[in-house]
Please model this.
Amino acid sequence: MGKRTLVRRRGRGGKQFRAVIVGKIAPAKYPNFKLEDHHIGKVVDIVHERGRDAPLAKIRFDDGRYSYVPAPDGTIVGSTIEAGTGATARAGNIMSLESIPDGTIVCNIEKNAGDGGKLIKSAGSSAVVFAHGTEGVTIKFPSGKFLTLNQKCRAMIGAIAGAGRKEKPFLKAGLRAKYMQAHGRLYPTVRGIAQAAVYHPHGGGRHQHIGRQSSVGRTTPPGRKVGNIAPRKTGRGRIKDPNQQA
Model:
C-alpha cells in the first residue's frame, strides 16, 4: 500500500506541521491612535521573538500604553518615536501615507487603515512611497510591484533592522532544523524522484527521473496528483510557421 505523500500528510494539519506559538511576546502592530492625535513614545527595550527575524522594539507612549513594533534600522534603547499628526519624516516615526513625501523609504505598512501594519515587516525589507493620487498612495515594493493604498493607512519611516540575517550560514543541519521548526516550515524535504515507487508517484527506477510526463489532470485522484497540476501548456514555446498549413 505504501504511505501518503508528503503533501497529503501536511494537509491533515498535524501538530508537527504547525507554527510554534511558544515564545511569542505580543502582536507586533501600532497602537489604536486617532490620526489627528500626536503621541510621543520612547523605546524602552529591544527584544527577540521566536519565529520572527526582525527585532521588536518595545515602545512606551505618553499615555502609558505599551506597543511592540518591528524595530527600524538605527533604533536604540532610549530613542524617541513620534506618531500621528505633526510627526516629521524621520526614521522610526509613524505617519499616515498622505503625510509622507514621495521617494521616502517606509516599512510596516498598513494594508487597511487601522490594522496595525501588515506589509514589509521582515528583516531588512523596505518599500518606497512612489506617488500620491486621487485614488490613494502608490507604494513600490521590493519585488517591483506597485500597490495603491488608502491614504489614511499608517507606515513607519525607514527600513526594518536585521538586514544581514541571511549572510551568516547555518553550517549545521540541526541549526537549520530548529530555525524551520520555529517558523512552522517543514525540514528536511525529500525530492519525489529520490523516493521509492511505493512512497511517491515520481519515485522508483534505477535513475532519478520521473519516467513519464509530470503533467496530471484536474480530476486525477489524490495519490497520483503531483507535479504540474492541469497546466495550460508546458515545455518550450514554439512559434508556428505562418506558411505551414494546419
Remarks:
- The helical segments are 6-11, 173-182.
